[in-house]
Design goal:
Elements (H helix, E strand, L loop, with lengths): L13 H12 L39 H6 L3 E6 L7 H4 L8 E5 L5 E5 L11 E5 L2 E10 L5 E6 L20 E5 L5 E10 L6 H4 E3 L6 E4 L9 E3 L5 E9 L2 E6 L4 H10 L3 E4 L3 E4 L18 E3 L15 H5 L6 E5 L2 E2 L6 H5 L7 E8 L2 E8 L1 E4 L2
Antiparallel strand pairs: 1-2, 1-4, 2-3, 3-6, 4-5, 5-6, 7-8, 8-10, 9-15, 10-13, 11-12, 12-13, 14-21, 15-16, 16-17, 17-18, 17-19, 19-20
Length: 376
């Protein structure tokens, strides 16, 4: 029997957020809107300046007051300093920040981007929250969305509520703290993958998120969160460039938060394929009777770094081959709006699925048991 996918996240009210987090960790701040009063400096740790006070709010007439208050819950990550010596040298300064994030729970779980913590250097970071520094104890990465969950030893931290990224539309405005520590307004311009730089970028992984929120250019630290006009969190900045800013939507990692707060673990399903989204490929035609093909064509990347089917993985064990086209997963069609990775992310490790596959002129139905990919 095929397991049914878990329901996709929907709008989460502040009360439900508090109940969910309280159940998962027992330590999440239940109050959604808490006065963000400055915390006294921690005398046992290096000095920490509150970098978001270093310059005035930008475009303040266009920034709602609740958003200006929300930035007080922003976390910034720095190379860790040591005690003693020159107070200027041992202090945390805004120009040294490696990334930003937000508090998830009152007992010290934080959210940011995984690339803020280079592999093997987790312990070399400190989190600065409301003027107080905390050594990072643990980093758990979500390989699918690219976010990271960070643990510090803290209590009574203020938290913000979540919004619903699935009701956002092109043209909506979001707000974030920019790299100069001013609140900036940005506009949603698309919901898509960042533009491909070469043919290798067109080859997607079944275990990586590709559909992101694309915004007008925002000079922001990686891991910076995006707020709606009512101060709710809906996304995390992934990268900024001259062509704009990409952000990871909240819904792509929302289902993992409960497990992180409860057990400190992220577990994602794994199929183990690389593919081309056929709806994105422009094929030669005579302009007559042409139609857009859909499905996930299993293909290796031109540089050879991404195999079409991972050796020994769940897809290989199910009999999938390079050149196969996955057209549906458990009856849900694979298309430009519902990419293979998007559909697979709604299932859990160990689920049994039925894949509809086109192999040449044949139409096949293959059973596969999803593997497990753990956050590290």
């Amino acid at each position: 029997m095929t397991n049914q996918p878990a329901p996709r996240p929907s709008l989460i009210s502040p009360l439900l957020t508090a109940v969910l987090f309280g159940f998962a960790s027992g330590a999440v701040g239940a109050a959604v809107i808490i006065a963000m009063a400055p915390a006294p400096a921690n005398e046992s740790s290096p000095a920490a300046f509150r970098p978001f006070q270093s310059r005035p709010i930008q475009d303040s007439t266009a920034v709602p007051a609740v958003v200006q208050a929300a930035v007080n819950a922003v976390v910034e990550f720095y190379p860790q300093k040591t005690l003693g010596g020159d107070p200027l040298i041992r202090s945390y300064h805004s120009w040294d920040a490696a990334g930003a994030g937000i508090t998830l729970s009152s007992d010290g779980w934080l959210l940011t981007r995984g690339d803020v913590f280079p592999s093997g250097k987790n312990s070399a970071r400190a989190a600065v929250i409301a003027g107080k520094s905390y050594p990072v104890q643990r980093v758990v990465r979500d390989s699918y969305s690219g976010v990271a969950f960070v643990k510090v030893d803290a209590a009574n931290l203020s938290v913000r509520s979540f919004g619903d990224d699935q009701v956002l539309s092109i043209g909506d405005h979001l707000f974030a703290l920019d790299a100069d520590r001013g609140v900036r307004r940005t506009e949603i311009i698309a919901f898509d993958a960042p533009p491909a730089k070469d043919a290798n970028d067109l080859v997607r992984s079944s275990e990586l998120l590709h559909r992101m929120i694309l915004l007008t250019e925002l000079d922001a630290l990686p891991g910076t969160v995006l707020f709606t006009a009512d101060g709710n969190i809906v996304a995390v900045v992934a990268a900024s460039s001259g062509s704009g800013t990409s952000a990871v939507p909240l819904s792509s990692f929302l289902s993992t938060i409960g497990g992180v707060l409860k057990d400190g673990l992220v577990a994602r399903p794994r199929l183990g394929v690389s593919y081309l989204d056929l709806s994105r490929l422009n094929h030669p035609s005579d302009g007559q009777n042409s139609r857009i093909e859909t499905g996930a064509l299993l293909a290796a990347s031109p540089d050879g770094k991404k195999p079409a089917v991972a050796k020994g993985g769940p897809a290989a064990q199910a009999g999938l081959r390079a050149g196969d086209v996955i057209t549906a997963v458990d009856g849900e069609a694979v298309s430009g709006r519902k990419l293979l990775a998007d559909i697979l992310s709604t299932f859990a490790p160990g689920n049994s699925l039925k894949l509809s596959v086109r192999r040449g002129s044949q139409e096949l139905s293959l059973d596969v048991v999803l593997g497990r990919e753990d956050g590290k």
